[in-house]
Amino acid sequence: MVWRSDAELIVPRTAWREPIIFGHRDHLQDMMREVVAQGASETILQPGEPVILEIDGEFRQLTERQLDQGEVQQIINWATDNDKASSLLIQGQEIKASYVVKDPVERDARGEKKKTRFRVAAGRGEVNGEMAYQILMRKIDSEPARLTEGELPVELLEAVTPRNGIIWLSGPTGSGKTTFFSAICRHILEQRTPIRGNIVFIEEPIEQTYDGIPCSHSIVFQMEVGRDVPTWEQGVRQLMRRRPKLIVIGETQSRVTAEAAMAAALTGHPVFTTLHCNDVASMPSRILSFFDDSVKQQMLYDWVTTARVLFNQMLVPRKGGGRRVVLREFLIMTEELRQELLDIADPGALTLRLKRAVEEEGCSMAQAAVSAHSAGLIDDETLARYTRARTTH
Questions:
Q1: The whole model's pTM is what?
Q2: pLDDT tens readout for residues 215-262
Q3: Run of H or E including 98
Q4: How far apart are the C-alpha atoms of 266 and 139, rounded to whole Å?
Q5: Which residues form a coiled coil (predicted)?
Q6: Neighbours of 130 (CB within 10 A)
Q7: Cα 214 to Cα 186: distance, rounded to the nearest angstrom
Q8: Rounded distance, CA 143 to CA 230, Å?
Q9: b/e per residue 133-171 (b: at least 16 CB within 10 A)
Q10: What span, in angstroms and rounded, lies between the C-alpha atoms of 78 and 349?
Q11: How many other β-carbons are positioned within 10 Å of the β-carbon of residue 107?
Q12: Which of 14, 289, 386, 392 falls 20 to 30 Å from 200 in CA-CA distance?
């Protein structure tokens, strides 16, 4: 396909002007400052297409000219600060990194240049029958978000700061999982909760930083897989030796990370981690998919034993346009519910019981959609999509 837009090019909000060719790393920094000024959530770069921005859920064209393969290859190296990154892509490896844009004028609370971070993901594929690369740069808020007043019910706010066990957060890519967890971490740093002490993160890459948040009872230490430690397993092993009071594992995406999260929780640590699945009820089956049949029953037992709160969230269009709205389903895993679930050996039956528990004891996605619609945040079409999806699931 060839990108075709009936809309006019984006009007620049900074002094940036499209270069004749992206030939210097400063060209990327200047362009990304414009991306920040436009309020774009994602930037997509690939050969044969202009630079595309996603703004409030809609694609917009930033550059008039299409990028060529050599430019995209060079941009990958700049965005990852790794001159070998494009060579790794040729070998079929996926590239993950973080990229920082520094504002030339604005300063943060420490008097340093204000920074905006982007999560960089690059991979190899095919365009017009030839090998090509695609880069996606997702904006991360410059500082951790805050939980808005009333965003979480009181009992749920207490439940997300346990003395031990796992808080699971699921949702598709780009659904605001990092933003939500960072808001909870900020709440922990700014308030008096049971979690106080050494708060450690292991991520790939580091997305959100907490340097500007004053705190008298805790410190934050962050590690990046591939930069600070070679593997997730080694990173978690290191963190466990530092007497952590909270462990944040950026994403559970394999047997190693699932085992690490549950092992940490079983030894008395609170753990935050994310997972890719469609809803709260499907979490057990997603976790079990990482393991061989011989250990699935034990892993299911460990998962139920350590689970404290289960979340799933989506970002949906706001009625009238603007910043998208979060729809969030959740379930607090009470001691009584965990004991009941431990008696259910069949994963399918467990999924059905969790689905019923979400609807009766927590908040389902359909219920969240009804609340958002009543508040005037989403339109009838969005409401119907989520209520229909849940009633026919």
A1: 0.78
A2: 999 999 999 888 899 888 888 888 888 889 999 999 998 998 999 899
A3: strand 95-107
A4: 34
A5: none
A6: 9
A7: 10
A8: 27
A9: bbbbbbbbebbbbebeeeebeeebbebbbbeebbbbbbb
A10: 50
A11: 10
A12: 289
Distance of alpha carbon 368 from the chain centroid: 20
| Pick from 250, 185, 270: nearest CA to 219 | 185
CB-based contact 241:281 (threshold 8 Å): no
Place of tokens 């290191």: 238
37-56 burial string, b = 16+ CB within 10 Å, else e? ebebbbbbbbbbbbbbbbee
Question: What domains lie within the chain, and their CATH numbers?
Answer: 25-140 (3.30.450.90), 154-391 (3.40.50.300)
Compute the distance between CA of residue 373 and CA of residue 225 in angstroms, rounded to an integer.
Answer: 41
pLDDT in tens, 58-98: 899 999 999 999 999 999 999 999 998 988 888 888 888 88
Distance in angstroms (rounded) separating the CA atoms of residues 70 and 48:
11
Among positive and negative, which fits the CA dihedral 69, 72, 78, 80?
Answer: negative
